[in-house]
Design a protein that fits this description.
By secondary structure, the protein is an alpha+beta fold. Helix content is about 45%, strand content about 30%. The chain is built from ten helices and ten strands. Strands 4, 5, 6, 7, 8 and 9 form a six-stranded mixed β-sheet that branches. The protein has a four-stranded antiparallel β-sheet with strand order 1-2-3-10.
Length: about 375
């Protein structure tokens, strides 16, 4: 069974995994640089603009409808005037009847958001709003798409006074999405043009269960209509996440798992305990005092590499196969967060060639994803 406790003052979580092995989860912040090289060319301003692509056709349709209504009203007024000016005999001979104003049904137009309101919600950390030497950003809303609106019939069992009843119930379901595309251009002409991936995925809507299908149908359509008026605000959050990843410089929360080992009569792991403490302190001040942080993390790194050189496949060895895997994970994490890409790749490869437990594989996969992301950002910074 796992045991949890907190190291006071370091906000570090200790997790025992049995057989004297434990890891300490350290939470810290690290400044994340932009993924896109455009942001590394002295551009500090951004000029956002929201474009409702779908609204153009809707507004044309609205204008055409209003023009048709105006035409019908004009014809109606002329017919009324002609009818009123004719005497009864003229009405009969000319076949005039009392005019009726009949207007065509209004077209079902999509909900039109306020473009300025949506634009005001776009924020890129590490940049300022402005138009001078700015990154011009156009965010295109493609249009609301409801799909697969239906009512499902099912049964529910219930008991009353020890008697079992089976009720028929109806549930409304639908899928909706509103795709968004981002186009950005730097003053130097560099371009970025991508759909926001999250907005291309359908969102599932569901009602409660009702005893009749009419209510379920009405409720699901109400949900679809309501979501049309809200989904753009959710999608602006996705837009901001994308823009901050591509162009923003922000403090991002990370965690590192530091594996340690319990000393016993045969093996002393006090050196690895020292490395653990150095690493914890180093990660904690990585954002506030990077020079001291790198010094402490490099000291821990050297202790772990020295231990790795002592590895033996003998189960009784101080640095046996089990300890080696924990040390490798420590070295991978330390390498990644200190921009030691060569070391990180070397130790990732080393661990990939060892048989690992599912928990170790999961941690390796997590670190590999962080490595790929931060290495790509580092390369973009170098290119910029």
């Amino acid at each position: 069974m796992k045991t949890f406790f907190t190291l006071l003052g370091l906000s570090t979580l200790f997790i025992f995994t049995g057989c004297g092995t434990k890891y300490q989860t350290v939470s810290f912040e690290k400044k994340r640089t932009p993924l896109n090289p455009i942001a590394h060319n002295g551009i500090v301003n951004y000029n956002p603009n929201v474009v409702l692509s779908y609204a153009e056709n809707a507004l044309i349709e609205k204008e055409e409808y209003e023009a048709e209504v105006e035409k019908i009203k004009t014809q109606y007024e002329k017919a009324v005037e002609k009818y009123n000016n004719a005497n009864p005999a003229e009405r009969i001979t000319q076949g005039l009847t009392q005019p009726q104003l009949v207007l065509p049904p209004q077209p079902e137009l999509p909900y039109i958001y306020n473009e300025k309101d949506l634009s005001s919600r776009i924020k890129i950390e590490g940049m300022e709003r402005g138009t001078q030497n700015a990154l011009d950003i156009n965010v295109f809303f493609q249009g609301y798409l409801p799909d697969d609106i239906k009512v499902e019939k099912s049964t529910k069992k219930r008991k009353k006074n020890d008697v079992e009843y089976v009720d028929t119930v109806f549930t409304g379901r639908a899928k909706v999405k509103h795709e968004v595309r981002v186009y950005a251009q730097s003053p130097m002409g560099s371009e970025y043009n991508e759909f926001v991936r999250e907005t291309q995925q359908f969102k599932e809507l569901k009602t409660g269960s009702y005893t009749d299908s009419i209510t379920a149908s009405r409720e699901i359509r109400n949900k679809v209509d309501s979501e049309e008026k809200q989904i753009a605000f959710t999608n602006i959050d996705h837009v901001n996440n994308l823009l901050n990843s591509q162009f923003g410089t922000k403090d991002v929360h990370y965690t590192a798992k530091i594996f340690t080992f319990k000393s016993n009569k045969k093996n002393d792991y006090s050196d690895l305990d020292e490395a653990s403490i150095l690493a914890q302190h180093g990660f904690k001040i990585l954002n506030t005092d990077p020079n001291s942080a790198y010094e402490k993390l490099n000291q821990a790194y050297n202790i772990w590499t020295d231990a790795l050189n002592q590895h033996s496949s003998d189960r009784k060895a101080r640095i046996n196969d089990k300890v080696k895997k924990g040390v490798l994970l420590n070295l991978i994490a330390t390498s990644i967060y200190t921009d030691n890409w060569e070391g990180a790749l070397r130790y990732i490869t080393a661990l990939e060639n060892i048989k690992t437990k599912s928990s170790e594989t999961a941690e390796l996969n997590r670190l590999r994803q962080i490595y790929n992301d931060l290495k790509t950002r580092y390369d973009a910074l170098e290119k910029g």
